[in-house]
Design goal:
Elements: H1 15-26, H2 31-37, H3 43-50, H4 56-59
Subunit structure: Part of the RNA polymerase complex.
Binding site for Zn(2+): 7, 10, 44-45
EC number: 2.7.7.6
Length: 64
């Protein structure tokens, strides 16, 4: 699944901060702090980012 463009509940754009969020997490920054600094403050938006599973790499293994 590709990261949702907008939050499912409130409609805020969240896809533009996802890559930066992943970079910060890989640098051992706390997820809560990273999201706050990126402007993601609502619980629904945080849920959409936290629950996202990067499965596109697994799907790309199979040819149609």
């Amino acid at each position: 699944m590709i990261i949702p463009i907008r939050c499912f509940s409130c409609g805020k754009v969240i896809a533009d901060v996802f890559e930066e969020y992943v970079r910060r997490i890989q640098k051992q920054e706390k997820p809560e702090k990273a999201l706050e600094e990126l402007g993601i403050t609502r619980y629904c938006c945080k849920r959409a980012i936290f629950s996202h599973v990067e499965s596109i790499d697994d799907i790309m293994k199979y040819k149609v």
